[in-house]
Amino acid sequence: MHDRPLRRAAILAAAGVLAFAGLTSADQASGDGDLTTSADTTVDLVMAPGETRTVDVGFVLRCTGFNHLDPGQVATYHFSGGLEPFPGAIGTVSEGTLGPVPTGWPAEGDACDVPAQVMTVSSPSHVVLHAPAVVGDDYEYVLMWAGVVNTPGTFDSQSLRGAPAVTFHVDVVSNTPPVLTVPADFQVEGDTTGGWTAAFDVSATDADDDPDPDPSCTPAVGDVLGLGTTTVSCTVVDGGKLSVTDTFDVTVVDSTAPALTVPGDQSVTTSDPNGAAVEYGSVSATDIVDSTPTVGCSKASGSVFPVGTTTVTCTATDDSQNTATGTFHVTVDVVPAHSATAAWGEPVAGSGLTFSANRGRTIPVKVTLAVDGVARTSGDASLRLSPCGSSTVETSQALSYSGGRWNASLDTSRLGGSCYQVTARIDGLDAGSFRLELRGAEATSAKPKK
Fold it and tell me: How many separate domains does the chain show?
């Protein structure tokens, strides 16, 4: 290890010459164009003896001078050379890109903003490094890239300068990588809205660390994994900064049908032989994974149901096309329409349902009312008077119940015509009527009505 300072000095000297030559060449060829550098000029790594490591190198474009790349242009950076601590230390180096240059980047001849614009949108160069097989500190790897513009534009030969370079300082330590244990690929039933709440066991051991390092995973335990297959990536890093990554697949399925709730059987009556409109109770469904399963029934609430018994079938369907079915019955029975009857008492009784009276007389009206053959002693009862030959009601008068019958005092002086149809009603039903004829001169104008 005594020759390390000499080796490092030689590498640094050579790297300086290479970098200086690259920068000088770029400056001479490119004038005062925009400057590109690496995102990090130095990177420290800890590697195990003989380990192979892939590191990503990004690039930065900084506005300088008055010659600029054009909006939309992309620069590509290829590996142009490097220095390594032993032959083969630098493995493969992929091309990287920078751009596209955004709209608003200074135009040719324009000065840069203060502070100057900086662009970092890039695809990194993937660098593969090989560690020496011997333990040691501060092995240095120097890598350089040259940039070219993919889509030529105005004054491109003067618009891009700089030779991005990175120096990797590598310490090689006697350390074994940790051992990461992840589950095998598995399938699981969804248990929450949207999927499955992640719950899996991942562990790690390390021969050099005490306690063992803790692994981390993405997605993590407690996250919700959606339906379908999700790749979980887990990584563990030990005290020597050696890391191990492994993955496993979790397939979340939903094979559980929704829970469907339907109303109980319904029974209604109607006098319409065609059936009746029936509003039945609510139909609802819940599902473990799908928060809003769809629900539909073979006959909607509020529809007209025919006479007899109809089976209503309801189905709930979730996003995974699992279905649940429930049924209930709606029975519609026909009942005869209600009918009312009136039995008139004296003085109307015995008049052949045509009663004549002198105008101005007050006629005592006495009537017994029945609905569906059952006598009524309470309810909304009244007399309605319509001119003969007309259905228009001219006046009405309430009936009151006493003495085992319904009674009213009909004041004919208040009537303007000479012929009326007097109808007794009970709870909205016409019970019966008689014809009232008034003798004497008709009134010149209708008197106020009650």
Answer: 4
